[in-house]
């Protein structure tokens, strides 16, 4: 009986003191903490989606992203179609179709004044812009297309421009054509060239020519994006604004750009070779489909700091930080007589999970950088003080606090980097693993319990 009691006590002592068993339990605890870590990431996504909803609400009240399309000249054209009457006798039927002519030259200048609108803790970028457009339409290609000029309805010509959100118009645009000014009006006929069509109806019976100069100005407001459609045989766009964080979108990047601390300028110069539209075509009801963005380009006004994106990147490293912290804590406790209970590892893990809720909530109020400093400092002080009270000596607590500070600093540097994040992250992890290997070499793993110096 005494032998059995001694054996049971020995087994419990081995189980309590075994290095391998404790490492196994630490590993299992790390895997369990994946669950609250996933909850934190879901919370970040939820807050980010809420921000997107607020931005949509602000855009709906202010004006949405703007895409300026056109101008396009539309010439109604009579055609004769072979048909048979009810008796089978052949004849002709007159149909009306359209000739679409794009600009030979298209010059666009835009001066943008972005600003940030606030709603509660969320921000949205909106802008006002004045756009000047001028150019010249191409001459009608009679021989190539086989068009009979006598069948063109010159008195029913339309000049069409498109705008993605008409709510953003601050004035009634006037198009100057053939030394005459025409006020635009919305088109409610079957014409669906663009999503929203603004047209003028000039009578060209006296000139019977399409090679005409045009110009117009638009005072516009929008949010987030300002885009243009590449329609000219030669398209030149100059844009400038007081914004230091523009993103150039679409298939065409600016030929020249300059971004300073307070403003930007950009210039696009594009020939028609890579444009997915012909210069002239005949079709009854054409639609210039811009959904695939093959000819759309422009500017996206980014917020200076996207705290949700950076917080999410931090949270993705959570399991790595927790694992490295537990291993570092394990090596810290080995030389000490007092040991850290598994329940205390759980509490430390919980503190490191709550760290990300602190980071998220503070970043919404004071920005990511200050929030990272507050959350990291509070967590390091909390865990360091806890370890000092457990081990009853300040030295290992100070060492561990320095290690934890190094980990958070390492993650912060990786988050700030873009192209070099993988390189610096790989080097940092290599150094950390090297240190762990060096420390583990001083442990006698052949023994079932902690080294003698750690008793």
Describe this structure in words.
About 40% of the residues lie in helices and about 30% in strands. With about 450 residues, the chain is α+β, with helices and mostly antiparallel strands. The strands form two sheets. Strands 1, 2, 5, 8, 9, 11, 13, 16 and 17 form a nine-stranded mixed β-sheet that branches. It has an eight-stranded mixed β-sheet with strand order 7-6-10-4-3-12-15-14. A hairpin with a 5-residue loop joins strand 1 (about 65-85) and strand 2. Helix 3 (about 35-60) runs parallel beside helix 7. Mean pLDDT is about 80; it is low at about 5-15 and about 445-455.
Summarize the structure.
The chain is an alpha+beta fold and 455 residues long. The protein has 10 helices and 17 strands.
| Overall form | elongated
Q: Could you state the order of secondary-structure elements as H and E?
A: HHHEEEEHEEEEEEEEEEEEEHHHHHH
What does the main sheet amount to? 9 strands, mixed
Question: What structural class results from the helix and strand content?
Answer: alpha+beta
Percent of residues in helices: 25-40%
Q: Count the domains.
A: 2
Count of separate DSSP helical elements: 10
Beta content: 25-35%
Q: What is the subunit organization of this protein? A: single chain
Give unreliable regions as ranges: 7-16, 447-455
Distance between the termini: 28 Å
Please give the number of β-strands. Answer: 17
Radius of gyration: 35 Å
Mean of residue pLDDT values: 81
């Amino acid at each position: 009986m005494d032998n059995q009691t001694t054996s049971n006590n020995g087994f419990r002592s081995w189980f309590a003191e075994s290095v391998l068993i404790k490492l196994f339990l630490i590993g299992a605890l790390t895997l369990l903490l994946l669950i609250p870590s996933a909850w934190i990431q879901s919370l970040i996504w939820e807050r980010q989606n809420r921000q997107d909803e607020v931005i949509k609400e602000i855009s709906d009240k202010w004006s949405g992203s703007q895409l300026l399309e056109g101008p396009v000249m539309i010439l109604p054209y009579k055609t004769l179609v072979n048909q048979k009457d009810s008796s089978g006798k052949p004849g002709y039927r007159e149909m009306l179709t359209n000739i679409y002519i794009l600009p030979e030259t298209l010059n666009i200048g835009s001066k943008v004044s972005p600003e940030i609108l606030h709603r509660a803790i969320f921000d949205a970028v909106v802008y006002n812009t004045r756009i000047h457009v001028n150019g010249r339409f191409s001459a009608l290609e009679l021989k190539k297309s086989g068009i009979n000029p006598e069948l063109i309805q010159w008195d029913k010509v339309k000049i069409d421009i498109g705008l993605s959100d008409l709510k953003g118009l601050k004035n009634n645009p006037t198009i100057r054509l053939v030394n005459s000014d025409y006020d635009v009006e919305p088109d409610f006929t079957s014409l669906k060239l663009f999503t929203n069509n603004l047209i003028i109806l000039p009578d060209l019976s006296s000139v019977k020519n399409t090679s005409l100069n045009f110009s117009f100005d638009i005072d516009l407001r929008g949010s987030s994006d300002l885009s243009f459609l590449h329609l000219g045989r030669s398209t030149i766009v100059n844009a400038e604004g007081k914004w230091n964080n523009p993103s150039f979108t679409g298939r065409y990047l600016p030929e020249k750009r300059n971004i300073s601390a307070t403003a930007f300028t950009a210039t696009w110069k594009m020939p028609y070779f890579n444009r997915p539209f012909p210069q002239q075509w005949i079709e009854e009801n054409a639609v210039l489909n811009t959904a695939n963005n093959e000819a759309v380009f422009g500017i996206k006004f980014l917020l200076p700091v996207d705290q949700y994106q950076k917080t999410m990147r931090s949270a993705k490293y959570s399991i790595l930080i927790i694992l490295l912290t537990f291993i570092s804590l394990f090596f810290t406790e080995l030389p000490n007589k007092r040991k850290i209970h598994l329940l205390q590892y759980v509490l430390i893990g919980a503190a490191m999970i709550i760290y990300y809720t602190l980071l998220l909530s503070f970043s919404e109020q004071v920005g990511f950088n200050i929030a990272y400093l507050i959350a990291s400092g509070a967590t390091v002080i909390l865990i360091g003080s806890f370890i000092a009270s457990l081990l009853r000596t300040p030295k290992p607590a100070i060492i561990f606090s320095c290690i934890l500070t190094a980990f958070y600093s390492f993650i912060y540097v990786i988050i700030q980097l873009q192209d070099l994040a993988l390189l610096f992250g790989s080097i940092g992890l290599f150094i950390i693993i090297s240190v762990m290997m060096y420390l583990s070499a001083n442990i006698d793993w052949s023994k079932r319990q902690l080294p003698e110096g750690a008793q």
